[in-house]
Amino acid sequence: MEILASLLDGFSVSLQPLALTMIVLGCAGGLVIGALPGLGSVNGVAILLPVTFLVPPNEAMMFLAAIYYGAMYGGSISSIMLGIPGASTAVATTFDGRPLAQKGQADKALVAAGIGSFVGGSVSIVLFTLFAPPLALFALKFGPAESFALMALAFATFVGLGGDDIPKTIFSICIGLVFSAVGLDHVSGMPRLIFFDMSGFYAGIGFLVLAIGIYGIGEILWTIETSKGKVEMSQATITASRIFENIKRLRHSTGVMMMGSVMGYFVGMLPAAGATPASLMAYGFAKSMSRDPDKFGKGEVTGVVAPETANNAASTGALLPMMTLGIPGSPTTAILLGGMIIWGLQPGPMLFIQERDFVWGLISSLYTANLVTAVLMISCIPLFVWVLKMPFTILAPIIFMLCVVGGFAPTNVMHDVWLMFLFGVGAYLLRKLDYPMAPAVLAIVLGPLAEKTFRQAMITSQGDWTTFFTRPLSAIFMACAVLLIVFPLVQNWQRKRRAEANAAAE
């Protein structure tokens, strides 16, 4: 009852006219920022941080949190409509969202993204409200060994239950791991894999550059070839009844939404993890849970619901260690943490006692921001779908221009633009050879995290590799990873024996 009373007090703060106005403006701005390739929540919050000095701290933090929420929703818009991830957190949405749009079902994909995001945000906010302090302590139990074991489980999911050709999946993961290792060594600081001694590689390969190259440039090249000059854009008629019908159909995805919400929230709580790994892991688990995993990548609604649920849940999860421990769970929350310190608010356990109005006002504003953003996104679906009615001869140059801007904007370095083109051509060639792209994307996201946590675990255990199996949580994750890798091998062996038995009987 005490929590409910505190939450009601928070709503009395967040529903004040100025606060509500800032929340609505933040949600709308976040949707636009998230939909523009190359920006995303990190850049959006950083760019608009000075604006918040015009209002009191409470309203300022609500505004930035609303931008964060809006950007998480908005990233799916360009992923679905143009095949270009608006941010790294929306890359997994591209896998099935874009094929749905190409089939004339963009409204179905956008509704799935909107409702999935709303459910993920709602579940995670409830978890945040009810269990903030104990969940923060649980997150602290994740040392390097547990974090690496969780990454290993994510890789094993794609290998064991992905439904793709296993050797090609492993090759795709290895390619991603190689690209993730480019740059300066995390421990020694020594340069590695600096191709042709080009200075641009010292900063590593930006994930957004890789994602835009694969799903922007690569998609344009693939469309041009497969269409043979006769590309017909979707002419779907969007009505309110059709949108409500799509919402009703999502009841079959309730299990995936719950899985994505819980997984996203807990992965988001882990420092340095964030929403991108959460969305990719949720997509992998949704594919492994499906009765027909071969549908994924070809326009499966569940493939949109899972990552969108997870990345919104992870955004709330990332706020938890920031507020309760002063440890940002993602780059965006690191900027929010800086804003709180500027306003004289000290994150930590005492924040919930000394600044109750601020804390519960912010928590209640998350409920409002989540609802407002979902309503804005679903009500604007006809406007988004209008984009698909443009002739491809007009749309392709626009996509190409957005890709160039998205590749250049984060770093302002032309080296990244040339890399983006190379990745686009490479993705196009690998697609022709039927290699899956999702494992490579997962590897380049999780590669640096996996390497860092592995080396930290080995250093702290003085080189004893059994540390991954002697710690309870990491042992569970590693055991599941091993089973997932062994599972397809056993299946292949059984299939081979069955075939031999049938041949002998004949």
Give a quick account of the main beta sheet: strands, pairing sense, barrel closure.
2 strands, antiparallel
The whole-angstrom Rg is 23 Å
Structural class: mainly alpha
| Number of beta-strand segments | 2
Range of helix content: over 70%
Number of domains: 1
Shape: globular
Listing every helix as H and every strand as E from the N terminus to the C terminus, the arrangement reads: HHHHHHHHEEHHHHHHHHHHHHHH
The fraction of residues assigned to DSSP E strands is: under 5%
| Mean pLDDT level | 79
Number of helices: 22
Give start-end ranges of low-pLDDT stretches: 231-235
User: What is the rounded distance between the termini?
Assistant: 71 Å
Strand order of the largest sheet: 1-2
Describe the structure.
It is built from 22 helices and 2 strands. The protein has one domain (2-505). It has a two-stranded antiparallel ribbon with strand order 1-2. Helices cover 74% and strands 1% of the residues. It is mostly helical and 506 residues long. The relative contact order is 0.18.
Q: How is the topology of this model organized?
A:
Layout: H1 2-14, H2 17-35, H3 40-48, H4 57-81, H5 91-102, H6 106-140, H7 144-161, H8 166-180, E1 183-184, E2 191-192, H9 207-227, H10 240-249, H11 254-269, H12 275-289, H13 302-324, H14 331-342, H15 351-354, H16 356-379, H17 381-386, H18 392-408, H19 414-432, H20 438-460, H21 467-470, H22 472-505
Helix pairs in contact: 1-16, 2-4, 2-16, 3-4, 3-14, 4-5, 4-6, 4-13, 4-14, 4-16, 5-6, 5-13, 6-10, 6-11, 6-13, 6-16, 7-8, 7-12, 7-20, 7-22, 8-20, 9-18, 9-19, 11-12, 11-13, 12-13, 12-20, 18-19
